[in-house]
Design a protein that fits this description.
The complex is a heterodimer of chains A (about 290) and B (about 260). By secondary structure, chain A is of the alpha/beta class. Chain A has seven helices and twelve strands. A seven-stranded mixed beta sheet of chain A has the order 1-9-8-5-4-2-3. In chain A, helix 1 packs across helix 2. Chain B has about 260 residues and is an alpha/beta fold. In chain B, about 40% of the residues lie in helices and about 25% in strands. In chain B, the strands form two sheets. Chain B has a six-stranded mixed beta sheet with strand order 6-7-8-3-9-10, sandwiched between helices. In chain B, strands 2-1-4-5 form a four-stranded antiparallel beta sheet, with helices on one face. In chain B, a hairpin with a 2-residue loop joins strand 9 and strand 10. The longest helix of chain B is centred in the C-terminal third of the chain and has 18 residues. Chain B is globular and about 55 Å long. The chains are: A alpha/beta (about 290), B alpha/beta (about 260). The structure holds adenosine-5'-triphosphate, magnesium ion and zinc ion. The site of magnesium ion (MG) has 3 residues of chain B, from helix 1.
Chain lengths: ~290, ~260
């Protein structure tokens, strides 16, 4: 986020730096500032058409474009991986329109745009994480009328969300939500963390990095400033538990990371590996070095 | 608990209103209506269809603003206190039982979740205790506690109304608005439900503002009653007095038609 408005920082010919024109960026930054001032509260913004369809992270891309400076180092992950089509195309987009450096290393990145995961490695104060959000409204399934959900937020009237969790326990014995598990931000606003696994929710709590959320189709931005308390909803006698598959990563042996189950052959062979490819790769190198010593 | 409060009117009212006027285009739905209700009192509003009973409840409960007049809750102007305060009242000190259970229940949420919602809305966060309270309330309104995890759509009309009452009373409101809570039910089911409402209102010292077509129901439940016609209160007083010695010709007609029937 250095030298944001540096006029020399032009990217490819014909584009403004980071694709968006300066007026649009200012509008988005104003929305971001409001969002930071009211943690967890959704701020409407005039989302622009992007050269990608909705569902490809246009909200996240606009937030990233608005905060990106020429000295930034960008990491993009999709489901934890840096090498999926979506992540690669977003990274390429910013290389082209902003000429910024990109990385797959969590530690080296100054901005991390993500879909569906938070990196395993703890983020720092000098980093920003930008989430792509399909549905910013945590109450949308319970109350489809937007005017009414806005009223519920204004009054912090969140009994309905607890009814939903109550129903899960009554029917299944536990809270069924494994993704997009609702959180209370700073003890005030109910917030959708985007479709990250519930396993990642505790990472949001008092995170040193700034967390920004962009929903393109729904035209909403929200934020969690550094070190803000973030609590997953639960009941006293059914406390929130982050769940991971009870295995070690087949590649690096981690028993702490979030695992994906992958097919290894056509015969139904399967294994569990870290969803965070950067984390897994680093651990494999470390394990190999230890073995060599 | 408010059970030891005196049962008759004449004290500082919980809710009072003056000069309530509201038109829907050419229709005068409320014409200079005054009303008050005190703690523990049951007040019935009777009148023919279209006389403004539902509109009056909606204005008194802050769901609708009048064109003129004021409503006061414990002396505070309801329409000046802001929506947040009104909503808080609606989930704490007040309850609303609708004629149609579909308007008062969440049909896609279990009976237990329906009863627990108000508890959770005011901060209950212990699943086991919410459930215990829901079971106790189902028993109290005579719904089989084994049905706690069933959806209300599988309940009979009478059971749905009982569930709606449990869901409303679980947070011990001081005043409950009921809009024809026995409408659309069989006569025998109606009678049992009225008994239940009477029992609970006495036991809990509830103030109840009940709209009904049914003069017999008013006689059974109400300390006082108020007769409406074309948006106006044409008569009001102690129930026995109004029914035994009606003053207004419309009330006389109403009472005699019931006796004749
Ligand atoms: N939203 C509305 N828009 C227009 N007119 C309305 C509206 N609500 C009520 N009215 C009219 O206002 C008058 C009073 O209606 P209200 O529903 O209060 O009567 P009611 O006494 O509750 O009747 P019922 O016994 O049939 O329920 C009626 O003439 C009705 O048609
Ligand atoms: Mg009515
Ligand atoms: Zn691994």
């Amino acid at each position: 986020m250095t030298g944001i408005d540096d006029p020399r920082a032009s990217g490819t010919e014909g584009y403004n730096f980071a694709y968006l024109d300066e007026a649009t960026k200012r509008m988005i930054r104003r929305a971001i500032l409001k969002a930071v001032a009211i943690p967890g509260h959704q701020i409407p913004f005039g989302a622009r058409e992007m050269p990608l369809p909705y569902g490809w992270g246009t909200g996240g891309i606009q937030v990233t474009a608005a905060i990106l400076g020429p000295a930034d180092v960008l990491k993009v992950i999709d489901q934890g991986a840096d090498d999926t089509t979506n992540a690669i195309s977003i990274r390429r987009f910013f290389t082209r329109v902003a000429g910024v450096a990109t990385t797959e290393s969590t530690a080296e990145a100054s901005i991390i745009q993500t879909r569906h995961r938070i990196p395993e490695k703890a983020l720092r104060e000098d980093q920003v994480i930008v989430y792509q959000v399909p549905q910013p409204e945590p109450l949308s399934k319970l109350e489809p009328r937007r005017a009414e959900t806005e009223r519920l937020h204004a009054l912090a009237d969140y009994g309905l969300m607890h009814v939903r969790l109550y129903e899960d326990i009554a029917r299944l014995g536990h809270i069924a939500k494994a993704y997009d598990y609702p959180v209370m931000v700073n003890g005030r606003y109910l917030m959708s963390p985007s479709p990250i696994p519930a396993f990642d929710n505790p990472k949001m709590d008092r995170m040193p990095a700034l967390q920004l959320f962009g929903a393109g189709r729904e035209k909403r931005i929200y934020a969690i400033p550094p070190y803000t308390p973030v609590r997953s909803l639960d009941f006293e006698d059914h406390p929130f538990r982050p769940i991971r598959a009870p295995h070690a990563c087949a590649l690096c042996g981690s028993t702490e990371s979030y695992l994906d189950e992958v097919l290894t052959d056509d015969a139904g062979g399967r294994m569990f590996v870290c969803s965070d490819t950067d984390y897994c790769g680093e651990r494999q190198v470390a394990v190999a070095q230890e073995a060599a010593e | 608990m408010t059970a030891d409060l005196p049962q008759t009117s004449g004290r500082t009212p919980l809710l009072n209103a003056e000069g309530l006027t509201l038109r829907f285009g050419a229709i005068p739905a409320l014409v200079d209506v005054a009303i008050d209700i005190s703690a523990g009192e049951v007040l019935a509003i009777v009148g023919e269809s279209g006389s403004g009973k539902t509109t009056l409840l909606r204005v008194l409960s802050g769901m609708m603003a009048p064109d003129a007049g004021t409503v006061r809750w414990l002396g505070d102007d309801l329409h000046a206190m802001g929506e947040a305060a009104r909503r808080r009242l609606m989930r704490t000190d007040w309850g609303f039982v609708h004629q149609n259970p579909r308007d008062g229940l969440r049909l896609n949420v279990s009976a237990g979740g329906n009863v627990g919602e108000r508890l959770m809305a005011v901060g209950a966060r212990h699943y086991g205790r919410i459930r215990e309270e829901a079971i106790a309330w189902l028993q109290r309104v005579e719904v089989d506690a084994a049905r706690i995890d069933d959806l209300p759509r599988t309940f009979s009309g009478g059971m749905q109304q009982r569930l709606q009452i449990a869901r409303t009373l679980v947070t011990r409101p001081r005043l409950v608005f009921m809009d024809e809570p026995t409408g659309g039910l069989d006569v025998s089911v109606q009678a049992r439900l009225l008994d239940l409402i009477r029992g609970l209102s006495r036991e809990l010292g509830l103030a109840v503002l009940i709209v009904t077509h049914d003069i017999a129901a008013a006689r059974l439940l109400a300390d006082r009653m108020l007769v409406m016609r074309r948006g106006e209160v044409v008569e009001h007083g102690l129930t026995d007095r109004v029914l035994d010695d009606p003053q207004h010709p419309y009330t006389q007609l109403l009472v005699s038609s019931v006796l004749a029937a």
